[in-house]
Task: inverse folding
């Protein structure tokens, strides 16, 4: 019980510990839900045995009451819609690779998957659409593609160009774009872009469309190795420093910008993480404020993995948040309505 309680408190601490200083804390944050369930099991077990030690898992679980809402919401708590309500979508389309794995495999494959996502975006009729890992195989005229397929939107984007085409982040906006730019992260193909949007004559906001680094490490290999392979440990530590550096790069821009900001996209990190904790400063989470049910946004290990977010300024109000389980990507889209 003491060991399980200690692990749970370390999981809480993972939100404020920079992974570049103690990379193993990230694993404890990822394991928050199973560690909390273990403590809940021990609490029930101790209570049934009438053990005086039941207070150990009980005390460990009390802070979980605050954090469980980041994973599951019992009821929607959104505000009423009004004429200042905007719809925002965040979607990592996964380079349309699911077209080779699911119902799009025969016929059409990747192209059919892209066509379905394009129709989805049009049907959602959102005001702001933030896309990550948008892949245009064999297509280099990105501006022309966007004009042809999304003529009703202005666009901000940054795409990596290679022999196979272009891929990157795209922000589509029904509002006029006053300015835009991007962050090129060191030693990474991941990136973040920003667009300044005039959402009404007196209000301009900056929207950060982020795709942060995935650690892509095997925790099980590290555990099996026990730290004996110095190369494996060193590579893990190096990977663990990238995402915090990327987050701090975006935060530095947020702090230097006079505009209020939305932070949207695939953070590749969970709600008990340093990434989420840092980016939430001055903002709210549409799922926490207006979601219902599980907030998972990734197909793997559903319903545990929530890594895609729409964070918005504190004094705005979330009206709704939906996460439909569509099969066009290994991520699910996050669809929110926000009143300003």
Result:
């Amino acid at each position: 019980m003491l060991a399980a309680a200690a692990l749970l408190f370390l999981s809480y601490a993972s939100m404020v510990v920079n992974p570049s200083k103690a990379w193993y804390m990230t694993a404890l944050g990822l394991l928050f839900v199973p560690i909390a369930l273990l403590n809940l099991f021990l609490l029930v077990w101790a209570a049934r045995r009438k053990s005086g030690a039941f207070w150990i898992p009980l005390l460990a679980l009390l802070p979980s009451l605050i954090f469980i809402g980041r994973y599951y919401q019992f009821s929607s708590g959104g505000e009423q819609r009004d004429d200042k309500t905007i719809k925002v979508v965040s979607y990592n389309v996964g380079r349309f690779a699911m077209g080779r794995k699911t119902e799009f495999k025969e016929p059409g494959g990747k192209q059919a998957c892209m066509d379905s996502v394009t129709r989805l975006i049009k049907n959602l009729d959102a005001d702001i659409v933030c896309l990550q890992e948008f892949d245009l195989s064999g297509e280099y005229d990105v501006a022309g593609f966007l004009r042809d397929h999304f003529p009703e939107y202005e666009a901000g984007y940054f795409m990596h160009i290679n022999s196979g085409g272009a891929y990157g982040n795209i922000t589509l906006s029904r509002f006029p774009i006053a300015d835009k730019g991007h962050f090129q992260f060191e030693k990474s193909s991941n990136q973040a872009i920003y667009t300044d949007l005039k959402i009404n004559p007196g209000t301009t906001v900056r929207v950060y469309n982020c795709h942060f680094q995935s650690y892509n490490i095997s925790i099980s290999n590290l555990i099996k190795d026990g730290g004996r392979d110095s190369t494996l440990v060193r590579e893990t530590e190096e990977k663990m420093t990238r995402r915090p550096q990327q987050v701090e790069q975006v935060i530095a821009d947020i702090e230097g910008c006079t505009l209020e900001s939305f932070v949207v996209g695939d953070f590749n990190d969970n709600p008990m993480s340093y990434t989420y904790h840092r980016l939430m400063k001055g903002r709210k989470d549409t799922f926490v404020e207006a979601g219902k049910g599980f907030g998972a946004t990734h197909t793997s290990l559903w319903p545990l993995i929530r890594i895609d977010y729409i964070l918005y300024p504190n004094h705005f109000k979330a009206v709704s948040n939906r996460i439909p389980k569509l099969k066009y990507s290994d991520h699910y889209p996050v669809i929110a309505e926000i009143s300003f």
Remarks:
- The mean pLDDT is 90.
- Residues 230-256 form the longest helix (27 residues).
